[in-house]
Amino acid sequence: MKYLTKRVYEKFLLSELSFTAHTTETYEELYELAFRKFYKQYFLEQQNFDLNFYKNLFEAELKYNSRLLRLLSRINEDKKILALGYASEKSIQRIQKYQKKLQNEYEKVKAYAYGKTLEACGEKKLHTQIYNGAIFEGLEKGKDCITLKLLEGDLIIENGEIIKGGDKPLYYYNEVWGPESSIAAAELYRTRRGYELQLIIHNHHTDKPVDLFYLTIRCTDIAELGAFAFFDALKR
């Protein structure tokens, strides 16, 4: 990815974190408060798992939050407490100001990257701006094409060759609570033979932190099916 890199996307994820003011509670007390909120949020959706399942899910989220919070080097707060979603009122004001800056930077980069994709598409209409968040249902390799099967629609990639990320796992949606993969960002470039589709894949796990990786596919052509193909009609 030339523009929407993993670091840029992680800054966006940091800008999405929310914080609650705290005063004198200990880390242990704040941990229990945060876990209770987390448990109630997911328990309403999935009631068939034991407490250890939610503990593992919660710990995985804390580890990933801690990774994102390394970007907050100027905030003089315990990062373990910040990872729980708590901070002093003074720090929250500073964090929110920084988060707003990150959101603005991300939107500028995203708009610029999409502009470059439009240049690469030429007269061909591809809607990479709505690929973000699309969840994988499968990846099929045929004789002459690769099909990315997504909940929102399929991408038919003719004469596709995966040149980066082919060794990484993809998790497919199956209506059962578990790991799944989605597209975090997409960019498209012209090559001598056709196109190069560059994706950031967002792997959501149930027992370990989120994993981001690049998936790059070179091809001669790309076709959209499903909601992707009807995006212009859906907007009207």
Structural shape: globular
User: What is the residue-averaged pLDDT?
Assistant: 86
> How much helicity do the residues have?
25-40%
Number of strands: 10
Alpha plus pi helix count: 6
**Runs with pLDDT <50, length 5+?**
none
Report the sheet-strand fraction: 25-35%
Major beta sheet, strand line-up? 3-4-5-10
Q: Which class do the helix and strand fractions yield?
A: alpha+beta
Largest sheet: 4 strands, antiparallel
Series of secondary-structure elements, N-terminal to C-terminal: HEHHHEHEEEEEEEEH
- What is the C-alpha radius of gyration, as a whole number of Å? 20 Å
| First-residue to last-residue Cα separation | 31 Å
What report would you give on this structure?
This protein is α+β, with helices and mostly antiparallel strands and 236 residues long. It is 38% helix and 25% strand. It contains six helices and ten strands, in the order H-E-H-H-H-E-H-E-E-E-E-E-E-E-E-H. The chain has helices at residues 6-16, 27-43, 51-68, 79-84, 89-121, 231-235, and strands at residues 20-21, 86-87, 136-141, 145-150, 153-158, 161-164, 180-190, 195-204, 211-219, 221-224. Strands 3-4-5-10 form a four-stranded antiparallel sheet, with no helix packed on it. A hairpin with a 4-residue loop joins strand 7 (180-190) and strand 8 (195-204). The longest helix is centred in the middle third of the chain and has 33 residues, at 89-121. The protein is globular.
